[in-house]
Amino acid sequence: MAAGDSLIVFGPYQNEPPSSAYATLDLRNLHPVLDFDDTTEEAAVFAGVLPRHYAGGGITVYLHYAMSSATSGNVVWTAA
Questions:
Q1: DSSP 23
Q2: How far apart are the C-alpha atoms of 62 and 6, rounded to whole Å?
Q3: Is 39 exposed, middle or buried (0-12, 13-18, 19+ CB in 10 A)?
Q4: Rg (Cα) of the chain, in Å, rounded?
Q5: What is residue 12's three-state secondary structure?
C-alpha cells in the first residue's frame, strides 16, 4: 500500500452514538457535521473493519473540526 492511501474514512452519518452525552447531527453550509456542546463532554463513536490489504505498521488519524463561537479553552480528542 502506498503512503497516503486512505484505509477507511468516516463521516458524521457513520457515527454510532452512545446512549447519552452524544454529539448531535447538524448541517453547516449544507454539509453534515456533528455538534459537540461547549459545556458538556460529549462523544461520537465510529467502528469499522480495515481492508484486507492493510499490512500493519500503524495508523494515522486525522480529525477535522471547526468551532461555532468559542474563542478560548481546549479541544481534546481520543482515538483508539
A1: P
A2: 11
A3: exposed
A4: 15
A5: helix
What's the predicted TM-score (pTM) here? Answer: 0.78
Cβ atoms of 5 and 18 closer than 8 Å: no
Q: Per-residue pLDDT tens for 14-71?
A: 999 999 999 999 999 999 999 998 888 999 999 999 888 888 888 888 888 888 877 7
For the CA atoms of 48, 51, 56, 62, the dihedral, rounded to the nearest 10 degrees, stands at -50
* Amino acid at position 36, single letter: F
- For 43-65, give one letter per residue: b (16+ CB within 10 A) or e: ebeeeeeeeeeeeeeeeeeeeee
30 sits in the region (left: phi over 0; alpha: psi -120 to 50; else beta) called left
